[in-house]
Input
Amino acid sequence: MLLETADTPVEGTRRRILDAALDLFGERGLTGATVRDIAKRAKVNVAAISYHFGGKEELYRAVATAIAGSITARVRARMANVLDAPPTDPEAALKALEAVIETIVDVIVGPPEMRRVARFIIREQMQPTAAFEHLYDALSHLHGAGCRLFATATGLAAEAAETRLLVFMVVGQAIFLRVAEAAVQRRMGIDRYDERFLAKAKALLKQNLRAMVAAAREGRA
Output
């Protein structure tokens, strides 16, 4: 899966537990998934969960932390230079925003295994638990980086309500392809997101982004 590497038997056990917990928490939620069911799916005894995580709520938070870390690591692998040293030129910032869109599609929309992650995140969005803070910290950091790029590209203030909402709208168009995958595929008459579909989606998303940036620039003129 995508949560953690497994270089030793102990790490392998921990990873199997996290993988099983990701599936069952995503399917049933924190209250619906039992430690016994997670242990059975991970092919470990119940004591292994206590040993590695302490209990069910601690395991749930560990899954949230692993998801946040994985998404952050995958984005940084693609865009560390932009995140650490964002461009100061408006056109360069727009190009960086286009790269953000491509990264979201490649990291979150394209990989089929991200369905499992999406189920967990959607549950936390609808019924937040204490684990939501782990997800929020990572996602708000990435959103803040997008706001700074959008501000540079348009001249808006990075933390203005308009900027924050516009960036949510930009990102949301891409994320919709993941959270509404079944409906999108059915309406488009496809059974999976292949490279041709994803390339077309990226092109349209970047076209919409450029239109939104142009409108924001015009609004400031």
Observations:
- The chain has a mean pLDDT of 93.
- Residues 54 and 204 are 46 Å apart (CA to CA).
- Residues 63-220 form a domain with the Tetracycline Repressor; domain 2 fold (CATH 1.10.357.10).
- The first helix runs from residue 9 to 32.
